[in-house]
Each structure stands twice: as C-alpha cells, then as structure tokens.
Specification:
- The chain is mainly β and 151 residues long.
- The protein is 13% helix and 44% strand.
- Strands 1-4-7-3-9 form a 5-stranded mixed beta sheet, with no helix packed on it.
- The radius of gyration is 21 Å and the shape is elongated.
Length: 151
C-alpha cells in the first residue's frame, strides 16, 4: 500500500513539474503598421486565427493595417502582381505554447482602415474572435467568415 502511494505521489509531482514548465509566459508584442496605396490594391484577403478584425472607413487614399506581432505569432503580408493584398497568420509556436492563457485583447486585434469604394473584393476569415464591419461601400464582392465568433 505504501508503495502505491509513493508511486502516485511521484507521478503527481512529475506531472506538476511538467505542467509548470508549460505555463504561459507573458510574451512581448510589438506594434506594427502596414500601409498600401489604395490604387494598388484591388482585393484584400485576411486569413487569421484567434484574432479580432475591426474595419474602419478611412477618408485617406491609403489602406492601413495595424496589428501586433511577437516572436512566436506574426503575419505574412504580401501584395501580389494581381493587386491582391494578403495577410496570413504565421505562427512559430510549439505545442506547449498553447497551454495557458491568451494574450490580452489589445494584442489580438487587427484594425483595417479602408478607403470607401476603392476595393473590388474583400475576403476576411478569422477564428475564435469577432469581426466588426461598419456600413461602407465597396466596388465588388465581400466574403466574411468567422468560426466561433460574431460578425
């Protein structure tokens, strides 16, 4: 009986030690901006995970994306030859980084300032967060997809 309790206590201690090493540490996030001339962008495509997307109409002739990145969470942003601006989640996390809490909402929000009526197409996808779109005009199609969040 004593041997069973010793093994159980050792297993519990080992499990607690392993989980304490996996606890979420506060990551350091850096504020970033991406600006593009609205005349160069016909299609805007965002495919992100665990990020809130806020769209704000802009009076400027530029498209502005503001966001935060860390060493393990970032984005691949590129403007293609067919004038499609894409922003895709890039993450360098190990499985232990998913244990624990999420970063604060400030770091999980992407804000898009879009000029009225200059885009042909808007394609936004996110998971586990909300998508906020105001009344605005676009020249073409809009596709909004949210998994486990609200539009």
């Amino acid at each position: 009986m004593k041997k069973t309790w010793t093994i159980a206590a050792a297993a519990l201690l080992l499990g607690a030690t392993l989980l304490s090493g996996c606890s979420a540490q506060e990551e350091s996030f850096t504020f970033k901006e991406y600006t593009a001339d609205a005349a160069q962008v016909q299609t805007l495509r965002l495919d992100v995970q665990d990020r809130r997307i806020e769209i704000v109409p802009s009076e400027k002739e530029q498209l502005l994306i503001t966001y935060y990145e860390s060493d393990t969470e970032g984005y691949d942003i590129a403007l293609s030859e067919d004038n499609t601006l894409s922003m895709i989640t890039q993450n360098n996390k190990s499985w232990t980084d998913f244990i624990g809490g999420k970063p604060s909402e400030e770091y999980r929000t992407i804000r898009l300032e879009l000029p009225q009526g200059l885009l042909d197409s808007l394609d936004l996808t996110t998971t586990n967060e909300d998508l906020s779109v105001p009344a605005m005009s676009l020249a073409g199609s809009v596709s909004l997809r949210v998994n486990n969040g609200d539009i």
